[in-house]
Amino acid sequence: MSSSRTGRDPWLDNSKMALVTLVVVGHAWALLPGDGILGHLYHFLYSWHMPAFVFVTGYLSKGFEFTGDRMWNLVRTVAVPYVVFECLMAFFREWLGGEQLQDLFADPHWPLWFLTALIAWRLLTPLFRSMPFTSAIALAVGVSVASAVVTGDISEYFDLTRAAGMLPFFVLGLHTTPERLEVLRGAGMRWAAAGTFVVLWLLTGLDTALGNADWLYYSTPYADLGVSDSEGVLTRLVLLTVGVVGAAAFLALVPRVGGWFARMGSATLVVYLCHGFVVRGLAYSDYPDWAADHVLAAAFATFVGGVLLSLTLASPPVRKRLLLLVDPFGRAEQQVTQAVELTLEAAAVQVPGSLPAMETQPATAATR
Predict the structure, then answer these.
(1) pLDDT tens digits for 88-145?
(2) How many other C-beta atoms can be found within 10 angstroms of the C-beta atom of residue 90?
(3) Positive or negative, the Cα torsion across 108, 109, 113, 118?
(4) Which residues of 299-333 are buried (b: 16+ CB within 10 A; e: fewer)?
(5) HSE-up of 35 (CA within 13 Å, CB side)?
């Protein structure tokens, strides 16, 4: 895979931005009637787009270690935003939606489950990365299929059953190398990927687990799905296989070239954390009732609106302002660093020749 002059891989940035946009669209589609073609589209999307999202997350988590810098980064970029947005979402749902909420923090508000899952996955990264590929995948699959046997309140605690259910996709990303991903660029792979999506479209239209959102969320216990544990395990294995195949098909279709869309790939956390307020707000309005009476218009408007919302949140002017909420400590560190640099530059101008190194050398990555 080629890298841009900035050191970022446009394939990864395109993948991240496309996937987070599909997350926004998928959440917005939940406002539409869940039957017919719209329900089919929803199930088709959820059969592969979250597996792909988690896979890419795992691929980008290879470097996590139990070091001071890495742990602080985990706290700063995941744990702190979780606390901030749990409070904001709780206030939003009670103030605007009139909901009565319980179990703040322990039961993540939609869609914040991904942050608690990411913390768990990152903490498990050194363990799974140290294991041979087959052993790591086998253990992750075992955890996934066993997690849905658990029932009761414990199954909802921090939404860890969903984190466990989707663990194989994360571990597969951890153990995937750039060389292995090059297979997806082989001759004819785009045609194979297109054919894969056609098959997935047909399968998700059937009356099976692939056409049932509760199965595709990877969070509902087998007992609540009305199946035995043995049947549930087999079904979960099929869903995991479909998720991997669908994720590979998606990645095979993602462009490897840079551009404005790829540059937005660095703002995926902003998009993910902030879009929920807009979708929730629409859910509290008359939009679902209007959508039920105007299905085709609502489907088009919801899709286009979801894409535009994602692009707007990722645009430089908007994301720059939202970073104060998404990464308050990082934003503060950046402002302090910039203030120090400006002070040193001013001092260098007032006393010529006093700071030759700082006048001639560009800022390093650590001081930007």
Answers:
(1) 998 888 888 777 766 666 777 778 899 999 999 999 999 999 999 999 999 999 999 9
(2) 15
(3) negative
(4) bebbeebbeebbbebbeeebbeebbeebbeeebee
(5) 1
pLDDT, position 343: 72
Run of H or E including 302: helix 295-314
Are 172 and 235 within 8 A, CB to CB?
Answer: no
The answer to whether 314 touches 270, Cβ cutoff 8 Å, is yes
Taking a C-beta distance cutoff of 8 angstroms, is the pair 49, 248 a contact? Answer: no
> Which long-range CB contacts under 8 A does 285-290 form with residues at least 24 apart?
287/31, 288/31, 288/32
Q: Are 164 and 202 in contact (CB under 8 A)?
A: no
**pLDDT tens figures, 21-77:** 999 999 999 999 888 889 999 999 999 999 999 999 999 999 999 999 999 999 999
Residues 6+ apart with CB under 8 A from 229: 149, 222
CA dist., res. 161 & res. 149, Å (int): 10
Residue 211 CB-half CA count within 13 A: 14
